[in-house]
């Protein structure tokens, strides 16, 4: 089956790269000419572990190509994955204009039969609109379209592994043959019949992925419902952390024991400065706005969002309590990305914290292993450092804002010696409080006794 991907961002490149890696021929298209030229020259515009090798290998074998013209992506494709962005509008609803534009492009350039797959995260009933747009704008041709919803559950930072070893593949269809075509596309992954570029033939044992066939509406709902639920879990842990701070108790002890209950599970039960990224903040908003329009007041989600926003206030209050005055203080920031192993800073809590520090007159000396290039354009006033030690030199406080594992391994004794005042605010509960205090740090974290 010849596959095309429209939109070469995180999801598009991982989808295209992985489908090529398991044996398909893939054409990837993006409307950003600079991005396409870079990709044609072998430059991957995002940092995502294993993606470079995967795409380079597929290019070497002639299984992946990059184009800037939608006609080239559509004319020979049997299946077209739409992977464009669906950012939030000012009112919180999803902006579907890129999806609509792509639908028009597909409709006008298609001949014959095409499977059109929504991979972008979209509100329920987008499939209906998509089908209508394809019919209306494709009415002059002989093209026939089958619309499928196939939401993506990958996690940035481990997305190649997640795509190749999913726990479930959800396909929303309104006619059974479309589900069979999707099964065909995913067959190597479902049957684990490919050379895994991540584990190099030694994949850890795991259950075979579920292939879940639903209606298109259910499939669209599954994605929003899953992300919103995970966001709820994080906010639950964060509100518990507030309680621990007020009443005594250690959030790490509490959530660790809670997570041992298989009905609860340990994941996404971590307290800290809250969730960010291109999914949770916008998806939770889009989901409750969608519910509102349907006459359902999904207060639970609004609360989760409110609690999340409060994290930044709470954290900065702690910093201010400790520092007294922010104006004129030198603050070291470790971590800019919204999570480790990615260079993605979209809606990253670290950026909001930096914005407020700068607004209050502090000078910020930041370091992140991958995300500095993307932050530089947004915050030119920040001093970007070569490593954590440079950022700590002369600092009145150090804020740890992304839980990169390498930050645990830093020579903290050396950092202590480099700082003007050894004040450490750990927004991710990454470090061991007793150890940091033993080294002489004034150490504050989230929901743990000071
Ligand atoms: N990033 C994630 O972790 C993740 C995970 C699951 C689902 N999603 C969803 O997948 C979708 C894409 O997310 P992303 O993070 O890859 O976004 P992104 O911003 O990284 O990539 C989107 C790409 O689409 C391109 N594009 C925009 N309009 C276009 C058009 N009209 N024609 C062709 N290309 C166009 C952009 O140039 C960009 O390269 C979103 O709906 C998101 O919610 C994201």
Task: Name the descriptors.
6-stranded parallel β-sheet, alpha/beta, 44% helix, binds nicotinamide-adenine-dinucleotide, 450 residues
Short description:
By secondary structure, this protein is of the alpha/beta class. Helix content is 44%, strand content 14%. The strands form three sheets. Strands 3-2-1-4-5-6 form a six-stranded parallel sheet, with helices on both faces.
How does this model look, in words?
- By secondary structure, the protein is an alpha/beta fold.
- Helix content is about 45%, strand content about 15%.
- The protein contains 18 helices and 14 strands.
- It has a six-stranded parallel sheet, sandwiched between helices. Strands 11-10-9-12-13-14 form a six-stranded parallel sheet.
- Helix 1 (about 10-20) crosses helix 3 (about 50-60).
- The termini are far apart.
- It binds nicotinamide-adenine-dinucleotide (NAD).
- Nicotinamide-adenine-dinucleotide binds near residues 11, 12, 31, 35 and 83.
Topology of helices and strands:
Blueprint: E1 2-6, H1 10-21, E2 25-29, H2 33-40, H3 51-60, E3 64-67, H4 70-74, E4 79-82, H5 97-109, E5 113-118, H6 126-137, E6 144-149, H7 159-164, E7 168-172, H8 176-190, E8 210-214, H9 216-247, H10 251-259, H11 280-293, H12 299-323, E9 330-334, H13 349-359, E10 363-367, H14 372-376, E11 383-384, H15 388-392, E12 397-400, H16 405-408, H17 412-418, E13 423-426, H18 433-438, E14 442-444
Parallel strand pairs: 1-2, 1-4, 2-3, 4-5, 5-6, 7-8, 9-10, 9-12, 10-11, 12-13, 13-14
Helix pairs in contact: 1-3, 5-6, 9-11, 9-12, 11-12
The protein binds nicotinamide-adenine-dinucleotide.
Nicotinamide-adenine-dinucleotide is lined by residues 6-12, 30-32, 35, 83-86, 98, 101-102, 120-121, 152, 154, 156, 278-279.
